Amino acid sequence: MRLWVRLALAAALVALLCGSFVHYDIAEDRTDPYPETEGLVADYDAHVGERTLLFGTVRSVTDGTLVIDVDSDAGTLTMTVPNADADVRPGGVVQVYGTLEPDRTIRPERTVVVNGDGGAALYKYAVSAVGALLVVGLFGRHWTLDTEAWALEVREDG
Amino acid sequence: MPDLLAHALMAYSLCTLLALRYEWLTARYVTVGMAGAFVPDLTKIALVVPAAQVRSLLGIPFDWGGLHTGGAAAVAVLVGTMVVRPGQRRRVTALLGVGALSHLLADALLLTPSGRSYAVLWPLTQYRPPTPGLYLSTSPVPTVLTAVLAAAVWYAVRYRPRQASAA
C-alpha cells in the first residue's frame, strides 16, 4: 500500500471516528431513557415524576440527606437526596437512581457511592498512570517508528 | 473495569494465554494487546479537551463517550492497523481487538444504581445490557485480582513443562 493511500485511509477512519462521536451525542439525546441534565436545569418542573440517574459531587451531608451538584453544559444542577443511605463525605461522588420530586429533590431508589471523599478518584488516576507508563514503556521496548516508511516496526533487538 | 493498570493486566493474561495456542504471539504482540486495552479509555481525552468545549467550538453535538462502545472502538483499532507495516497488520489488528474487547466486557460488569450497563454494541444497538455490578470503577479489588492472575499466568507459561518432543 502506498504511503498516500495509507494516509488517506487513516484520515478517512479518523473522520469516521469523529463522526461517531457526533452521532453518539445525538443518539444519546434521543434514546437515553433518562431526561438530560441540561433539560432539568432549563425546566425542572416539566420533569417532576420522571425517573432518572444522576451523577453528582456531594456538597453536604446532614442526617442522611445529601445535597449534590450535578454538572452539565447548561450549568450546575443542585439536588437534594433525602434518605440516601450512603456512606459518603463532602467531595465524594455518588450515582443516584430515583424519581424526580418537586423542589429539586430526588427520591432515591438506589444510591451508589463511586468514591467516598474524593481520595478514591485520585487513587484511580494514580494507578491508571502506572498502567499507562507500563504499557508505553513495554511498547517502546518492542516497537519503533520507521521514519522512512512512516510505520511502526518491530525493533530488531526487541 | 476500574483503572488502566487492571485493564492492561487483564489483556496481558489473555494474550499470554493465547500465545500458548499461537506461536507467533511473542512478547511484542502481547504489548500490542495491552495497548489495545487502552482504546476505549481514550475517552479520557475529555479530561484534557472537554466535549463541551468541542461542542461550543464547532457548534455541533459531540461526545467522546462514543469511543467507549464496540463500534467506535473497532474503528479506532483499524486506525491502529494503518500505522504498522503490512506484514504485521493482521496480527496487530487482532491483538488490538482482543485488548479493546476485554476492556469493554470488563466495563460491562461495573456496578450502576440502575442495574443497566452501557450501550456495548453501539451503534448496532442502543441496548444497555443488565450488569451484575461486580465492582466500582474506583475499587482496588479488580486491580489486585488481575495482578494475581497476570503473575500466575506469567509463571505458568514461563515454567510450563516442555513437551518431550516437538510434534
Residue-averaged pLDDT of chain B, rounded?
90
Class derived from helix and strand content of chain A = alpha+beta
Give the biggest beta sheet of chain A.
5 strands, antiparallel
Q: Any guess at the CATH architecture of the largest domain in chain A?
A: Beta Barrel
How many E-type strands of chain B?
Answer: 0
Poorly predicted spans of chain A? none
* Spatial separation of the terminal alpha carbons of chain A: 25 Å
Distance between the termini of chain B: 40 Å
E-strand count of chain A: 7
Main pleated-sheet profile of chain B? none
Radius of gyration of chain A: 23 Å
pLDDT < 50 stretches of chain B: none
Helix content of chain B: 40-55%
Overall form of chain B: globular
- Give, in order, the helices and strands of chain A: HHEEEEEHEE
Beta content of chain B: under 5%
Strand percentage of chain A: 25-35%
Number of domains of chain B: 1
Quick synopsis:
The complex is a heterodimer of chains A (158) and B (167). Chain A has 158 residues and is α+β, with helices and mostly antiparallel strands. Chain A has helices spanning 3-31, 37-42, 119-142, and strands spanning 51-62, 65-70, 77-81, 93-101, 105-115, 143-146, 151-154.
Describe this structure in words.
The complex is a heterodimer of chains A (158) and B (167). Helix content of chain A is 37%, strand content 32%. By secondary structure, chain A is of the alpha+beta class. In chain A, strand 2 and strand 3 form a beta hairpin. The radius of gyration of chain A is 23 Å and the shape is elongated. The model of chain A has no long low-confidence stretch (mean pLDDT 89). Chain B contains 6 helices and no strands. In chain B, helix 1 packs parallel to helix 6. The radius of gyration of chain B is 18 Å and the shape is globular. The model of chain B has no long low-confidence stretch (mean pLDDT 90). Chains A and B meet through helix 1, strand 4, strand 5, helix 3 and strand 7 of A and helix 1, helix 2, helix 3 and helix 4 of B.
